[in-house]
Amino acid sequence: MIKALIWAIISLLMLFVMTSGISIQLKPFRIDITYPYFGLGIVLTAIGLTLCIGSAYYYGISNNQYKDGYKKGFHAGVEYVIEFAKQKKNEE
Fold it and tell me: What keywords are assigned to this protein (predicted)?
């Protein structure tokens, strides 16, 4: 969880840097952010879209009882393969 959070923070910081028109000069060490509101707006939009899409995905899974779908599908697949192997063994 911490690793994902760190990656998210780094990604949002890079998105802000790329969209805000930042310029760094090394002589007197001057940092100039040309469009800070645009960069902040893009970052907040990305956070909002992520939260909306994530919550819609979670509610879609929980409302349709698909939380354990992978587990049930895996066990059904294992049973099918075992039955298929038994049939092939009995045919020989």
Answer: Membrane, Transmembrane, Transmembrane helix
Determine whether 16 is exposed, middle or buried from the number of CB atoms within 10 Å of its CB (0-12, 13-18, 19+).
Answer: buried
Cα(22)–Cα(15) distance, rounded to whole angstroms?
11
Contact by Cβ (8 Å): 56, 50:
no
Total domains present in the chain: 1
Distance CA(55)–CA(53), nearest Å, equals 6
| Domain presence at residue 54 | yes
The answer to whether position 6 is within a domain reads: yes
Please report which confidence band the pLDDT of residue 8 belongs to, taking 50, 70 and 90 as the band edges: confident
Distance, CA of 18 to CA of 39 (rounded, Å): 8
